[in-house]
Amino acid sequence: MYLKNNTIINTKKKILKTSHLSKEGHIASSFSVLNILNVLVKYFLFKNRKYLNNFILSKGHASLGFYAILNQEKYISDNKFYKFASFKSQLGGHPKRNESIFTTASTGSLGHGLPILTGMAFASKNLHKKNKKFFVLMGDQECNEGTIWESLLLCSHYKLNNITIIIDRNFSRESDLSLGDLAGKLSTFSKNIFKVDGHDEKKLLYLFNKKNKSQTPKIIIANTIKGFGSKIIEGDNSWHHKYPKNKLELEQLAKTIKY
Fold first, then answer.
1. At the topology level of CATH, where does 6-256 sit?
2. Does residue 96 carry a pLDDT above 80?
3. Residue 1: its pLDDT value, please?
4. Burial code of 124-133, b = ≥16 C-beta within 10 A, e = fewer?
């Protein structure tokens, strides 16, 4: 049983509205990662309201979820948020590199976020001798990309324990190409692998804060539900790229958001 979170419920309703206005957006994917993004934005990506340039949303099609949390925390305005995916909007259907909207890398074609972040983490640790921590949020089917495993080889070889890799494990495309025992496959590259309920923010916060005493990246497999919070959208792959087509459907969907 999940606890009711009025702030997140309101944020999800704004995602629905924005998707309706733009006729764009991956609602189900955004709901899947919203609790993860909520914890990251609140506690790890900013200091004194200043962007630390330490996060990549490799699961780029969930950009609406990231923008929604930035809007929730007052980093971007309602006016900007509701112009999502409109002509000349800074907020695209996939992230475009732009530090004014806290976007480190352009992503969308899956498998790019971890390679980019690996280079950043290597430079920070080995060239600049800094203790900066880096975070990347990926989708589980993104792990079918060869670039992910090439990057993991580098992370392991260069002992990049300043990276936290979060995998949104929602199993939405498992029937297309099964990842099987994902933790087992990843154990070759990291001694620091955790499984967690990706909608339990207290457990997420604990793991993000947990000190990495190994010389390998921290990998968090966050078990989630695609479309989490709406019984209409949850687990229905037809909602992967659908949007509320009219105000009546928007209102009906908004009423289904329970957490």
1. Rossmann fold (3.40.50)
2. yes
3. 59
4. bbeeeeeeeb
- The region that residue 5 occupies, defined by phi over 0 for left and psi between -120 and 50 for alpha, beta otherwise, is beta
DSSP one-letter code for 125: I
Q: Output the pTM of the full model.
A: 0.96
To the nearest 10°, the Cα dihedral for 254, 255, 256, 259? 80
Instruction: Examine the pLDDT at 139 and tell me if it is beyond 70.
Output: yes
**91/64 Cα distance (integer angstroms):** 8
From residue 75, how far is each of 12, 78, 80, 99, 182 by CA, in Å?
A: 17, 10, 10, 12, 35
Alpha helices in 192-246 (DSSP H): 201-209
Map out the domains of the chain as residue ranges: 6-256
Q: Is residue 176 scored above 90 in pLDDT?
A: no
CA 84 from chain center: how many Å? 17
166, 146, 190: which is closest to 59 by C-alpha?
Answer: 166
Other CB atoms within a 10 A radius of the CB of residue 93 amount to 18
- Could you tell me whether strands 46-47 and 50-51 are parallel, antiparallel, or unpaired per DSSP bridges? antiparallel
Look up residue 164 and give its DSSP letter.
E
Residue 151's SS3 state is helix
Q: What is the dihedral of CA 174, 175, 176, 177, to 10 degrees?
A: 60
